[in-house]
Design goal:
The complex is a heterodimer of chains A (445) and B (253). By secondary structure, chain A is an alpha/beta fold. Chain A is built from twelve helices and 21 strands. Helix content of chain A is 26%, strand content 36%. The longest helix of chain A is centred in the C-terminal third of the chain and has 20 residues. The two termini of chain A are 35 Å apart. Chain B has a single domain, classed as 3-Layer(aba) Sandwich (Rossmann fold), CATH 3.40.50. In chain B, strands 6-9-10-3-11-12 form a six-stranded mixed β-sheet, sandwiched between helices.
């Protein structure tokens, strides 16, 4: 076993301690799921670059850092919440894996929405929780999701009743923070009942400049005819490690949209898996990521077309500067039964420096014969002629570049249906760009 | 206003302009004519500061300043405008939004207050009428999906809003039918003023029926071989460029 894989021993020891101590309060089914997940993680250990799915991303820096289990609500949490809070939304704050009522704002709970911490939900046998928690996907091939599940303790459950149309966006703020490097395993479960509609956003944030490890899992259940728009904004500290897994199970005529924005983290690994498990389901899977310095962002998407007459649209845009490294793997499987599938995947990357790199890999596996499946990948630089055109009208180099980058990312940002969040994401994106431009020496060092 | 002395320009490894001399005064319209490949567009792009066009020798003084020392955007903010021969399509960048940013960059440079959206739209409304630029063209991405005529009209519209002191029109007539040509020429003529100069680069005499030049220069193989009044353009129309490309070019008359 490699040194990286062996590092999981400390996590297993921590699990044993958790299972014998604080973890005992949970119902039996939760304890069982943790034990199963812990066994999966014990077997796999941390992934190594010899594994196909992790070929370009070494998690050695995560495995080699000693993270203490995150606990409590540090003083800076309230300030972080204030920085990212979206007006006119239902606010749920998860700090170090726990739902914190004092920082959340549930004063205008819309009709048809039920919110519970996972701990309370499990204790009270909340509808759907036992059925869906840690069951929407197979985590045996996701070591970090298994690790998260082993430490399953709290988090949030958002359940939308059948037919409910929720106008107020639900905003989940996920904070990891401590006075030393900590690890947290935040968990979110969204259950959208038949024919319901809801928008859920997640913002991942931490104290700037601090080292920590967020290992998040989010499961979304889209029942028949439901419509869920899901946004994630990853703006962790530049020194943080961010591993997130979003898994959606979409039933017949369900609509699911995932819009992922990422600007933070020293190392990010984002896995998104969407299973279209009913006829006539539709999904959108879009994303924009910006990576600079010598950071790494790895996005692995997996779209499972299991049933006939489903459509999917995937559009990812990467902006890479400095010595930034990007990885994009877009897997689509069209199963034998999934006739009349219409799937489109586009993945574009802009390299703003000679030293930035991207490894981009579309991976289509098609077992049905009557399908439409297209993919396109392009890596390029900013268009020199367009730059000159804008500059010849009076915009300086930075203004011209920002305008082109804004246009590049705009196609994805436009899909963001929460204006307050959209404004935030646009400004984070430009702050990130500015950071890279204003300190080019630092970026190159 | 503009003093070009012995300007030599290279594109990649090839020298295209071999020493251009030209003086343009405020209020004047100069036409630069010449056959394909003579270096007309190279001259226009060099004035605008295109990074692919390397000046190897010579001097360009614009309103007392060294133009060649300025970045393209600084030239623009100082009042130099080039209407592109091939306006670039920029998907995702809204035409009006871009124009507002450009105008405000220039205003800021000159110490003027930036225009807000309402003042800007009022200005746009006034300028767009003359050029037949409709709301739709303003709302679309810059040049994206524009017809050839729309692109050229949009260039002149940008010029009308930015109000340059020196406007260089690079083959603005190419690809225009007679109606579009008239609209574009009207737009230019409306802007003629004692403190503004134009350099009109064109292959054909036709445009000069509408935009009447004070001086006409003939560019051949990277050199200005002939200069004259408006009648030179008519002579070129009649005789073509062949008679000027003879070895003794520029020696007669």
């Amino acid at each position: 076993m490699s040194p990286v894989a062996e590092r999981h021993e400390t996590y297993l020891a921590a699990y044993e301690g958790f299972a014998r101590g604080r973890g005992q309060a949970a119902p039996a089914w939760v304890r069982e799921r943790r034990a199963t997940a812990s066994a999966v993680f014990a077997k796999s250990g941390f992934p190594t670059t010899r594994m196909e799915e992790w070929r370009f991303t070494s998690v050695a820096p995560i495995a080699e850092t000693e993270f203490a289990p995150a606990d409590g609500v540090p003083a800076q949490a309230a300030r972080l919440v204030a920085e990212v809070a979206v007006p006119d939304s239902l606010r749920l704050v998860i700090v170090n894996g726990e739902l914190v009522a004092a920082l959340s704002d549930l004063s205008h709970l819309p009709k048809g929405v039920r919110i519970a911490s996972l701990r309370d939900g499990a204790r009270d046998a909340a509808d759907g929780l036992q059925a869906h928690l840690a069951t929407t996907f197979d985590y045996t091939s996701h070591p970090f999701a298994a690790l998260n599940t082993a430490f399953l303790d709290d988090g949030v459950m958002i359940a939308v009743a059948k037919g409910a149309v929720v106008e107020t966006p639900i905003h989940v703020i996920v904070i990891t923070a401590g006075d030393r490097p900590v690890v947290a395993h935040p968990r979110t479960l969204v259950i959208a009942g038949p024919s319901s509609q809801v928008r859920v956003a997640q913002t991942f944030v931490g104290a700037p400049g601090t080292v920590y490890f967020t290992n998040s899992v989010t499961e979304v259940v889209v029942e028949e005819g439901a419509n869920v728009e899901f946004y994630s904004d990853q703006r962790e500290s530049q020194q943080a490690f961010h591993v997130a897994n979003l898994q959606a199970h979409v039933s017949a005529r369900g609509v699911f949209g995932s819009h992922a924005f990422a600007t933070g983290g020293r190392l990010m690994r984002h896995d998104i898996g969407i299973g279209l498990w009913g006829e006539g389901a539709d999904c959108t899977m879009n994303g924009v990521y910006l990576v600079d310095g010598d950071r790494l962002m790895d996005t692995h998407t997996f779209l499972d077309h299991a049933m006939p007459h489903c459509t999917s649209h995937e559009l990812y845009k990467g902006i890479l500067a400095g010595k930034g490294k990007g990885v994009f793997n877009g897997r689509i499987i069209v199963r034998q039964d999934a006739q009349k599938t219409d799937a489109k995947q586009t993945n574009r990357a802009l390299l703003l420096s000679d030293e930035a790199t991207i490894n981009s890999n579309p991976q289509l596996e098609i077992f049905a014969d009557d399908v439409k499946c297209t993919h396109g990948a392009a890596v390029g630089q900013l268009d020199d002629e367009a730059m000159f055109y804008l500059r010849a009208r009076g915009l300086n180099e930075i203004e011209a570049r920002d305008m082109l980058l804004h246009a590049f990312a705009g196609e994805v940002i436009q899909g963001l249906q929460i204006p307050g969040l959209r404004a935030q994401i646009e400004s984070t994106l430009f702050d990130a760009l500015e950071r890279d431009v204003k300190a080019p020496e630092a970026g190159r060092r | 206003m503009l003093e070009v002395t012995n300007l030599k320009v290279r594109v990649e490894d090839k020298e295209i302009l071999h020493g251009i001399n030209l003086a343009v005064k405020a209020g004047e319209v100069h036409a630069i004519m010449g056959p394909n490949g003579s270096g007309k567009s190279t001259f226009a792009r060099a004035l605008a500061g295109h990074p692919g066009y390397q000046v190897t020798d010579g001097q360009v003084i614009y309103n007392g300043k060294d133009l060649l020392d300025m970045d393209p955007d600084e030239r623009a903010r100082e009042g130099v405008f080039m209407a592109f021969q091939y306006p670039v399509e920029i998907p995702g960048v809204n035409n009006a939004y871009f124009l507002k940013a450009a105008l405000n960059a220039k205003r800021k440079h000159h110490g003027l207050e930036e225009l807000d959206a309402m003042d800007f739209m009022a200005l746009v409304k006034e300028k767009s009428k003359v050029l037949g630029v409709d709301q739709d063209m303003l709302k679309r991405s810059v040049n994206e999906g524009f017809s050839g005529g729309e692109k050229k009209r949009n260039e002149i519209f940008h010029m009308a809003v930015l109000e340059p002191l020196l406007a260089v029109l690079d083959e603005t007539d190419s690809g225009l039918d007679i109606d579009a040509l008239r609209i574009v020429a009207d737009g230019v003529n409306a802007m003629r003023s004692p403190d503004r100069a134009f350099i009109v680069v064109t292959h054909y005499q036709r445009l000069l029926n509408y935009i009447v030049p004070d001086r006409v220069h003939v560019l051949s193989d990277g050199l200005l071989v002939r200069s004259g009044g408006r009648e030179l353009a008519l002579e070129l129309e009649e005789k073509g460029y062949g008679w000027l490309e003879a070895p003794a070019a520029g020696a007669r008359k």
